[in-house]
Amino acid sequence: MATVNSKAIVDEIIAGNGLYPGDDIPVVRIVQYNNQFNGGIAYGLIYRGEDLNRYFGGACHNSKVIWEKT
User: Fold this and answer.
1) Are 62 and 34 in contact (CB under 8 A)?
2) Which tens digits make up the pLDDT trace of 7-57?
3) Backbone phi, then psi, for 38, in 5-degree steps?
4) pTM of the prediction?
């Protein structure tokens, strides 16, 4: 499970069609949500083989898929 707070990193992953420079396992879904600590925006990165719904519920509020590998 990977979470980032940087929209710039998310934009690089999207531009790379799921790959961040230097990575070899693609991200297949990015979920934007508000974290439970301060309500700040965070981005959940879901890699191939991981639960696609892991950022829906619990500590993740207002979750929405913003990108998905097709």
Assistant:
1) yes
2) 999 999 999 999 999 999 999 999 999 998 899 999 999 998 999 999 998
3) -135, 5
4) 0.93
Q: Write the CA distances from 36 to 5, 10, 11, 57, 61, integer angstroms.
A: 14, 20, 23, 11, 7
Q: Which amino acid is at 59?
A: A
Token pair listed for 68: 């998905």
User: Residue 41 is encoded by which pair of tokens?
Assistant: 């925006």
Count of residues in the chain: 70
List the alpha helices (DSSP H) in 7-52. 7-15
* Residue listed under structure tokens 């829906």: 56
